[in-house]
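As promised in the previous annual report, we have extended the structural survey to additional targets. Below is the entry for ferric-chelate reductase (NADPH).
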Amino acid sequence: MYATLIYLISTTSAVGLYLLWKLSQLISPTTRWKILFFLRKRLLYSLVLRRRKGTSEITVSSFLGVAVIVAANVTASTIKLRDRTEFAKRCGTLFLINLVPLYLGGRSSIIVDRILRVPCSQYLLLHKWLGRICVIQGIVHGISSATATTFTVVEILLLSLLGAVGCLSFLYVRRYMYEVFLKVHLISALALLGTLYFHKHLLRNRSAIGLGIASGLWLVQQVIRIIRILYRNSGSRTAGSLLLHRFPSLNAPVQCLDATITLKNAWKVEPGQYVYLSLPSISRHRAGFLQSHPYTVAWSDDATVTLLIQRAAGFSNTIFETSKQQSSVIVDGPYGKEPPIQDFDKVLYIASGIGIAAHLLSIRQLLQDHENQSARVRRLTLLWFLETRGKFANAIIPILRYLIEEL
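The corresponding structure token record, generated without further manual editing, is:
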């Protein structure tokens, strides 16, 4: 019955996609563009939930994707259910299936960023919801199985780790104990993965394949990441440091600085990309080498990368308070990719304060493409909102003057 149902759903989906593709070929290019524009506007850009603080905002497409995943898991765990034992078994199987994409990595997954080309905000949203589903399914599986068998030490440890991961993943815990959350979350996730290998019921069936795939994905991701970090931070050039330049603000403490990284190996930075920065010699709680924070690349050339840093609590405040002008640095990246905008006639950039750092490389790229006649842009407009002129203007105006005069 289940094999027939799976075959029917797969065949119907394939035929439906083929018919949609054929229908799209019958539509004129203008009509097709209008349809795609409508779908982008209503699905990709329209927001379901706008957050004042926190992580990414939820668009219609992201909301629908999460809703489909939740509905699929609920349906798969409850459809034609016979007894509690089968319910526990289904939850355990679904837990292992959902566990696989979670071990692609978190915020710095090279597989997601470079191979799958999934935007960081969408992947993190998927990671959070799959994690929540896994925690619920794992706990339900453990509690449901407890009525039929006696708990072992391994099963108690698994439930404890799932509970710890779930409790530490709440928004307010992540926001106010960010560094603690990152380290404890990683340790708990690895401990959970290792403990699952000792789960007596798991190794008796084919579900162990999912556990092996999850372990392999995480291991491959980490090996690639370590090799990449070693390549970025070692080379023939003698320099490999971070130079800090503070910009004074009128009648106020310094609120902005640029951090210029001298690269040991030249690497190309594309507009919209960001790097993770670790400063071993500028320690916070004596653990500078363990902390890694993301910053958008504001400017780059063959030998240097420049970041604009705004003063805030935590890691950035430690940078501002240090008396050092130069520091050793470990760079992980770059990550991310900006959507192509060379085919648009008019481009409007809007930024507030330090947010202009995300636009500078993109503006330079558009001006260069326009000069080389490889972009359609005819009008480029930048709206930059500043509370006070002296807060960030000293850092940005020289770059804007260069863009206007030299390009």
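The radius of gyration is 25 Å. The mean pLDDT is 80. These points will be discussed at the next consortium meeting with the crystallography subgroup.
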